[in-house]
Design brief:
Blueprint lengths: L2 H7 L14 H29 L18 H7 L2 H32 L6 H8 L1 H4 L2 H11 L6 H8 L16 H26 L3 H9 L4 H29 L3 H6 L11 H11 L3 H30 L1
Helix pairs in contact: 2-14, 4-9, 4-11, 9-11, 11-14, 13-14
Length: 309
């Protein structure tokens, strides 16, 4: 049997680099088991939630839903509670993201040094990340407890002012206290990302700069920061989105109090949807938050395009 006749009798498909070639239809069929849960549990609820923002949907059985266009969004613009929660959300997300980055950068620089027990320090730095946000909230709520909390007890024993303050119920201190907890809980992932970026910088660059007489700060400014710029842009954008969408941590700590001083947009949407049953209004608030996230992502992509240009 000739090779040509054998090829006609057994028409194998062309093989790709991986070894076995498959058609486009077969590849699509193989993707269905992975895509189906995403479509059902993520994409469909997202589309449904966006649509509900343009309706008067309310909680209850047999309640008719009507399309009302932009009425919910007009009400949001004139809702002072929403505007206040949006401002608080921006303050929270911006403050936590900025402080996280500064502290995580310092910690990652420290963890790159040849210290004793460095492996243990790196492991301990991940502990807040491994803890659920509800557990973190309960733990810090006990720390801030006014009568028997760790913080007030330390202040009392040190004869320092503030030992009688109820940190999570005080109008002036509730938001800073919550920001502190947010920084502690979210700093590990920023540290890990920056640490990975630092380990990707070649030692030869620092050695050459040191031979040329560059100081430590000059090497940091001219080598470390430029090399870390893509990582910094990515992790700060993600941190801002995560912090702006945060719910569980602040809900456990303050439930948005006192008097709405820590009511983030997600808490405001939760109250509107699940306490007052205004699903349409709460969904409109979610749509507004999607726009904010889209703007942040557009800023990130624009920065990436500038990096690659």
């Amino acid at each position: 049997m000739s090779v040509a006749s054998g090829a006609r009798r057994f028409p194998f498909r062309s093989r790709g680099r991986a070894g076995a070639g498959i058609s486009g239809a077969e590849a699509a069929l193989l993707l269905i088991p992975a895509l189906l849960p995403i479509l059902l549990l993520s994409v469909a609820p997202l589309v449904r939630g966006i649509y509900l923002g343009f309706t008067d949907s309310r909680a209850g059985f047999g309640v008719h839903t009507h399309f009302i266009g932009l009425d919910n969004f007009r009400a949001l613009v004139h809702d002072q509670l929403f505007i206040d929660s949006f401002k608080i959300g921006l303050i929270w997300a911006g403050s936590v993201t900025a402080i996280q980055f500064v502290l995580a950068l310092g910690l990652s620089l420290l963890l790159t040094q040849p210290l004793r027990l460095r492996w243990l320090a790196r492991a301990l730095a991940l502990v807040p990340w491994a803890m659920p946000s509800v557990v973190v909230g309960i733990m810090w709520k006990l720390v801030f407890q006014p009568q028997a909390g760790v913080l007030n007890e330390l202040l009392r024993r040190g004869h320092l002012p503030g030992s009688e303050i109820d940190w999570l119920a005080n109008f002036s201190w509730a938001l800073p206290a919550v920001i502190l907890v947010g920084v502690w809980a979210g700093m590990p992932q920023t540290t890990v990302a920056l640490l990975a970026g630092l380990q990707g910088i070649r030692d030869e660059l620092h050695e050459a700069a040191a031979v040329d007489g560059a100081t430590t700060f000059q090497r940091f400014r001219t080598i470390t920061l430029p090399q870390l710029r893509p990582v910094i842009l990515a992790i700060t954008s993600l941190d801002f989105i995560w912090n702006f969408n945060s719910f569980g941590l602040v809900y456990v700590l303050t439930e948005g109090g006192p008097a709405g001083k820590t009511q983030l947009p997600m808490l405001f949407a939760y109250n509107q949807g699940f306490k007052y049953g205004a699903f349409g209004y709460a969904s409109a608030l979610g749509d507004a938050m999607v726009v904010v996230i889209a703007v942040v992502l557009a800023f990130y992509l624009w920065g990436r395009l500038k990096e690659t240009a």
